[in-house]
């Protein structure tokens, strides 16, 4: 299990879908095409870290 949990700020998300490609078991797009966390431990931390690093609007972060 991953020690860190990602969260998405849907107010920032522009629905590009990158996070759901980088970590498909962690992130999904909802009906409004905004990202949400499906399963915080769904993918290796490296995949989640890639989604965080490459989200164009920095909408994903690790929970404090
Ligand atoms: Fe939204 Fe960022 Fe995920 Fe793109 S990568 S869908 S902007 S949270």
CATH level-two architecture: 2-Layer Sandwich
Any idea of the CATH topology?
Alpha-Beta Plaits
Write down the overall geometry.
globular
Strand arrangement across the biggest beta sheet? 1-4
Q: What pattern of helices and strands is seen along the backbone?
A: EHEEHE
CATH class: Alpha Beta
The portion of residues forming beta strands comes to 15-25%
What separation lies between the terminal Cα atoms? 17 Å
Secondary-structure class: alpha+beta
- Share of residues in helices: 10-25%
Count of DSSP H/I helices: 2
Alpha-carbon Rg, integer: 10 Å
Overall domain count: 1
Main pleated-sheet profile: 2 strands, antiparallel
Rounded average pLDDT: 96
Q: Residue ranges: pLDDT <50 for 5 or more in a row?
A: none
The ligands found in this model are: iron/sulfur cluster
- What is the β-strand count? 4
Q: In summary, what is this structure?
A:
This protein has one domain: Alpha-Beta Plaits. The chain has two helices and four strands; from the N terminus they run E-H-E-E-H-E.
Task: Describe what you observe in this structure.
With 64 residues, the chain is an alpha+beta fold. The chain has a single domain (5-63), classed as Alpha-Beta Plaits (2-Layer Sandwich), CATH 3.30.70. It has helices spanning 18-22, 45-54, and strands at residues 6-8, 27-29, 35-37, 60-62. A two-stranded antiparallel ribbon has the order 1-4. Strand 2 and strand 3 (35-37) form a beta hairpin. The longest helix is centred in the last third of the chain and has 10 residues, at 45-54. The structure holds iron/sulfur cluster (SF4). The site of iron/sulfur cluster has 14 residues, from helix 1.
């Amino acid at each position: 299990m991953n020690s860190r949990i990602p969260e998405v700020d849907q107010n920032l998300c522009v629905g590009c879908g990158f996070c759901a490609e980088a970590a498909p078991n962690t992130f999904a797009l909802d009906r409004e095409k905004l990202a949400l966390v499906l399963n915080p431990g769904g993918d290796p931390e490296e995949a989640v870290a890639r989604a965080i690093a490459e989200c164009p609007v920095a909408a994903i972060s690790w929970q404090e």
